[in-house]
């Protein structure tokens, strides 16, 4: 059974005016841990924020506020989120993210919305937002000076998908080709609708991220019952690729156990998805210094938090090896109405002021989204987001450092 030692918790970034969430990290060759995350334009979930980068030079203990940099700022008509980062063999940094746009912005609706919420004095009327905001696509930015400056956004061609959403950074194969995991749909432009479930797929670039094309399908359900989302890739010592995916079943959208697929040809073809006994989402996987493999994932039901599991060979994963990295992450109370997500039907995720229920927390269940690296001394640094215990709770990003003890 895996046990942890030398556990400590550290704040990466906390701002009471803005929710900060969905962090992704990589350990650079210079020894820094670089984190990118989404800073919402409001203290609510809105998927319209901006991508922020920050660094730790002491293994995740402290995060230098002077290194904080907005990579792609929001504008009055666009925002971006769901960012990931990777470092290529030549030192180039690549950030991938999703850009959203606002339509009919500034045009007053003639008819009142059917929803009475969310309308706030500070942030205006969101009740139409889910109909006037849409994903514009997935893009990458490149930096050849260790993240000091960044290129213009480079569009990722996801055809035949109508849209693709990302979660983690790209992965570089030994050949130098880049793979990017996305999830999306062929007939629909959003996450839901048209009677089509979500599939996961790989985009590939053979020129350092300048051009991208659809490479392979990771998993999809032709019956459109199961959603396969937010793929997490792992490169095994023997050259195989393993991918874990979050799942939901329709029409309820209930979250089910994660599935895994395996590729023996650098990601061109994949085995049928295999159900595991591990519940949680989304995941990230790394190879440990001792040759074993580690997966971390969010746990969005009581008692909530972030969990991990070890595999000896990278293809055998079981809940028997599960351990807790962080328990909790939900506040106990909120002093004000908490709007849900602007990209869903009004009221979805909304929570009234007062005590927060662990069984029906609304949008407060949105915790986790972990990312993980391991330092040369064996210390594991797992980053994630959770809710503060401020009177008006906000999401913030933090890291847990630990060592594995058998």
From TrEMBL:
Domain Sialidase: residue ranges: 138-380
CDD domains from the UniProt entry: Sialidase_non-viral
| Source superkingdom | Bacteria
Positions of transmembrane segments: none
Q: Alphabetically list the UniProt keywords.
A: Hydrolase
- Give the PANTHER family listed for this entry: BNR/ASP-BOX REPEAT DOMAIN PROTEIN (AFU_ORTHOLOGUE AFUA_7G06430)-RELATED, BNR_ASP-BOX REPEAT DOMAIN PROTEIN (AFU_ORTHOLOGUE AFUA_7G06430)-RELATED
Protein name, as recorded:
Glycoside hydrolase
Source species, please?
Lichenifustis flavocetrariae
Organismal lineage: Bacteria, Pseudomonadati, Pseudomonadota, Alphaproteobacteria, Hyphomicrobiales
